[in-house]
Amino acid sequence: MLKIKDILCKGKGHNMNNDAKPGSYPPPQQDSLIKRWIYYLLGTILLLTAGYMGVKNFLLFHALTEGFTIVVSFSIAFIVFNTYQNLKSDFIPIIGIAYAFAGIFDILHTLAYKGMGVFPDDVANLPTQMWVIARYLDSIGMLLAGISIGRIIKPFYVLITYAAASAVILLAVFSWHTFPLAFINGQGLTPFKVYSEYAICLILIASIILLMRHKHRFQPQVYQPLLIFFVFSILTELSFTFYKVVAGWESVIGHIFKIIAFFFLYRAVVVTSLNEPYDRVRNQARDLQEINAALEEEVMERQAAQESLRQMNAELETKVNERTSQLQDINAALEEEIAERQAIQEALLASRDALLDSEAQLKHYAAEMAETNKELKNFANIVAHDFRTPMVNMKGFSRELGYALTELKQIINGEMPHLPEESRRKLDALLEKDVPDALQFIHSSVDRLDRMLAALLKLAREGRREIINTEVDMGKLLNGVLRSFEHQITQKGIQIEVGPLPIIQTDYLAMEQIISNLLDNAIKYMKPDRPGKIAVFCTDNNDEYLFNFQDNGRGMAAEDCEKIFELFRRAGKQDVPGEGMGLTYVRTLIRQMGGKVWCESEPGVGTQIKFTLPKKFFH
After folding, report:
1. Helix (H) or strand (E) run with residue 244 in it
2. How many Cβ atoms sit within 10 Å of the Cβ of residue 291?
3. Radius of gyration in angstroms for the set of CA atoms belonging to the chain, rounded to a whole number
4. In angstroms, rounded to a whole number, what is the distance separating the alpha carbons of residues 362 and 280?
5. b or e along 323-336 (b: 16 or more beta carbons within 10 Å of the residue's beta carbon)?
6. Which of 123, 294, 366, 380 shows the greatest Cβ crowding within 10 Å of its Cβ?
């Protein structure tokens, strides 16, 4: 028979960290041969198209190529900065820090090219210097990440070091003018540039050696793309050691190698980091199904044993009755045996009752886990739908557009007197209203997405927080929360009525958050045309407490009472600030403590939020 503990002790989820054991990763899924060849064909077409574009319009080719690598760099940094606390290894955080700073210098490298119109200097030295700096930063970051495997390298110190080094380098290039020349017009690359490329290749080779030494610590879908990334990165650096003109065929080939290298870096870090949470959720769902099946099998076997025991007792009693008249001399011995069997039966019945109690508790756990899985699924769907767009890139490039707009205004203002009146009016409308309004809309949209992500992460943290059992005086807790709302209550003239509240065993911080959210909602949605009133009282219902938060505010339709507990759902007129997350927190916390919450409301009359908590502490 399959035991529950055997299922619970099965293989755990795998991730890209230093604690993984050799051979512990599952084999990757194999794509079909046709699908692979389609990918290869599309990739070849794209690279050929890019090469043709590099020959025909190098400036556009260069901007698109560098733009792609910059997006990959900041995507890695964005994932690291938002998931740092959940990573057990310092390998990925160090890469994220290195590529964040390298991405900044890649932006400067792209903008410094002749024809971009950002920097006044038209020589090729400045973009070449930015290229060398960016490559040093990302190659050294890869080396540090490899060294960090099995060793302690604090990402915080790496961040401080990279920030300080970047500041000194920028001063050396733009203020002190002491940074070595990398390109001289008419001559080509300087020895500093060439030797730097060789040095960078050596750093990358050292990183490859470290990666191969710790191969067993990585999933195949991470290790193989990283290895390909290093190879093409070395080819990229070697391609930039012998060109004499910036837009030569050597530069085109080098940039194509860079595209390939960063594509595999994207596959290794970004795609794996995004897919891993979904794989973990699917594994947990499969484990839950196995646990449920084992529970059903175990319950059926115990029921069969009980039925067999009852049949044996019935048969025994029949035989005793038939033989009583014939076996008077051994009646005493039989009575003693019957008494013993009755004691055994009572013990088994007691065991059955305990089993039924355990079964009820396990069903409760299963229901809670099912609900949690549903919430995790909703969370994953929302993240996939609303937050996969590169917010950081949108905000960064809209800011760059703002800077470009300012410079464009300065240029056009100098030419305004020479333009016709109609053209001046159109330009003025575009530069002063239409374009700034569009940029502001982009900024506000990205900010709203950021707030939604923060709210979702907060909900996820609340769902994972450990519940701590303490003795809580609900009356004192409520008075403390009311003092924090004293200004709003006095300003709106709200009357507070509090009934007798018990001392219960519960989690203090969770109850404080629940009461704060319920009072905040009641105060925000008061009707301004009548005196406000909020009543809080509790009823003792045998093995649980029933709490009631009642107000005479706006109220809502009955069909909206369940919606207000869902993510980002609000009811009625939306004239007060909020993201629709407060009551979602309340429901999550109350479920964690074994209770339930619901709403009763009537438009124009008021709302009652009721929730129960078990007297016996539930965790």
Report:
1. none
2. 18
3. 35
4. 22
5. eeeeeeeeeeeeee
6. 294
Q: How many residues does the chain have?
A: 619
Cα 258 from chain centroid (whole Å): 29
Residue 578: predicted pLDDT: 53
Question: Reduced to 3 states, what is the DSSP secondary structure of residue 288?
Answer: helix
pLDDT at res. 447: 60
Please report how many Cα atoms fall inside a 13 Å half-sphere around the Cα of residue 447, on the Cβ side.
Answer: 7
Per-residue H/E/C for 550-562: EECCCCCCHHHCC
Q: Tokens 């007297």 belong to which residue?
A: 615
Angle at CA of residue 61, ends 73 and 132, nearest 5°: 50
**What is the residue type of 447?**
D
Could you say which DSSP state residue 606 is in?
E
- Looking up tokens 């067999």 gives 308
First to last CA, the chain: 29
Q: CB–CB of 101/57 below 8 Å? A: no
Do residues 151 and 158 lie in contact, with contact meaning Cβ atoms separated by under 8 Å?
no
Spatial CA neighbour of 239 closest among 261, 220, 217, 218: 261
Report yes or no: 252 and 51 within 8 Å, Cβ to Cβ: yes
DSSP structure class, residue 180: P
Pairwise pLDDT comparison (52 vs 476), residue with the higher score: 476
What CA–CA distance (Å, rounded) separates 327 from 322? 9
Distance CA 264, CA 455 (A): 32
**Taking each helix axis from N to C terminus, what angle separates 125-147 and 155-174, rounded to the nearest 10 degrees?**
170
Grouping H, G, I as helix, E, B as strand and the rest as coil, residue 495 is strand
Number of H helices, E strands in the chain: 18, 9
Separation CA 597–CA 565 (nearest Å) = 9
In 3D, which of 71, 96, 95, 195 has the Cα closest to residue 144? 95
The count of other CB atoms within 10 Å of the CB of residue 310 is 12
Number of C-beta neighbours around residue 146 at 10 A: 23
- 0.90 exceeded by pTM: no
| Cα–Cα distance measured from residue 302 to residue 594, given in angstroms and rounded to the nearest whole number | 28
* Tens-digit pLDDT profile for residues 563-580: 788 776 555 565 555 555
pLDDT grade for 311, boundaries at 50, 70 and 90: confident
With contact defined as beta carbons under 8 Å apart, do 613 and 545 qualify?
Answer: yes
Other Cβ atoms closer than 10 A to 449: 16
> Residue 218's Cα: distance from chain center in Å?
21
